[in-house]
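Repro:
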Amino acid sequence: MRASRLLSVLLLLQNRGRMTAEELAGELEVSVRTVYRDIDALSASGVPVYADRGRTGGYRLVDGYRTRLTGMTEEEAQSLSLAGLPVAAAELGLGTVLAAAQLKLYAALPAELRDRAGRVAERFYLDVPGWHRGIESLPTLSAVADAVWSSRRIRIRYERWGQRVVEREIEPLGLILKAGNWYLAGRCDGTDRTYRISRVLELTDLGEVFERPAGFDLAKYWQEWSEQFERRMFPRVAVVRLSPRAQALVPFYAGSVGARALRECPHEPDADGWLTVELPVEPGEPAIGELLRFGPHLEVLAPADLRAELAEAIEEMGAFYG
């Protein structure tokens, strides 16, 4: 553990130049006193670390000194795929591992490329969840991830829709982070299925290693499952007229499904800018609520029963506020 930390101190000084003890302690999540001891240990081992005193002082390596001790551990190499998702990496228990891997990667780069990589990190940031939503914090996520990495069977107690609790034995194949929500792709009774991690009530690691199915493609599986899920979620199609304002609001009110319907619409706007679109909607009352969000900027043309339901809802609202 200390050897790894000493290497991190060395790589931090190599990548960033002069750093204070307080800055090093913050990066490594240790005390300033520990940093002092680590600096002494590096100096004693022959690393040319110098201390500049004064308000602008700190620790630095002698000019031109570079280490080539940048070999990555297996965990660090795995964590690099999450380099743009630091919060997700932390949720999976790989936060500090990712930081160490990035340090080693930067240290191995030539100076020019290292500077360019630093500029990218300064100028671009990926924020995955939608507004007013965060990435789920889940007590079972780390254990699920560990089972995925090591291909070990697990038994879970799982809450299905309608609050029905079931027990399943699963071969975990992959994890997906979708709009702040974590999902597990797993094989159960020979069938590939998807489980939302927030609904996993209990998890038992069975300690049995399984053989991953040959040719399983997690990205392809998720794309196909998402398309099927979308069709189940939006089984009805409403033919609607949208004002120019409603067209601008479609991505916000109807999400990616509505945005795609708008983008693929074969019609042209009329003289007033209104556009007729076939909009996928949920069944029952959720569809009414979704369409009411557009107010007077949307008109349902078909099906007739949906138009009648919407008109009834508007009439009831008018009577309530009248």
